[in-house]
Amino acid sequence: MQIENILNELKDRTPALMGHKHFKRSSVLIPLVEVAGESHILFEVRSKNLRTQPGDVCFPGGRVDQKDKHPTDTAIRETTEELGISEEDVSEIIPLDYIVNDLGRIIYPFIGKLKTVESIKPNPDEVDHIFTVPLSFFLENTPKKYKVHLEIKPEDNFPYHLIVGGEDYEWHIRTMEELFYQYDNKTIWGLTAKILTHFISLIDTKKDH
């Protein structure tokens, strides 16, 4: 193939995340709700019957479906299904920064407003119960941080003979940070805490960003 042909083939292409077609995509919604005249964030506690992360605290959300035209549609659909509310009960949906992780997932977080807590009827197949936390708590308290060291272990037939250093190759050991909030005997951590911390950083004008 001639160089000119290659350049003509690619010149109008729009860059995207490499390998994005093979990534699993999910959306979550940070639900804001007014409780006794104060702004609160609503959380779910996952049903203990779920196969993954039973009993964990999370935001409403789930996998992007083929029928969803946009990740926003996923956030709305999952929120209404899990909380037993209508689409009219969810408004003012705004996207936050999305997340790409090494497990082959893209997560699209959104912020949105719920009309009321009283109308919520959680789906027991997915949600054990819900609770709210005053937004002021997260503005006044920073999460505790803990490091997790990830081990690199090549498979048995890894071709060491093809790389400089062979079996003595110095892999860069990776460390990831996990965040923890604790409120009223509830632990908020993992991806939920990371998304929450990102949201708080966007609205906390007392901090330098």
UniProtKB/TrEMBL annotation:
Top-level taxon of the source organism: Bacteria
Sections of the chain in a coiled coil: none
UniProt keyword Manganese present: yes
InterPro entries xref list: CoAse, NUDIX_hydrolase-like_dom_sf, NUDIX_hydrolase_dom
Span of domain Nudix hydrolase: 23-156
Signal sequence extent: none
Keyword set, alphabetical order: Hydrolase, Magnesium, Manganese, Metal-binding
Family annotation (Pfam families): NUDIX
Essential cofactor(s): Mg(2+); Mn(2+)
CDD domains recorded: NUDIX_CoAse_Nudt7
Protein name: CoA pyrophosphatase
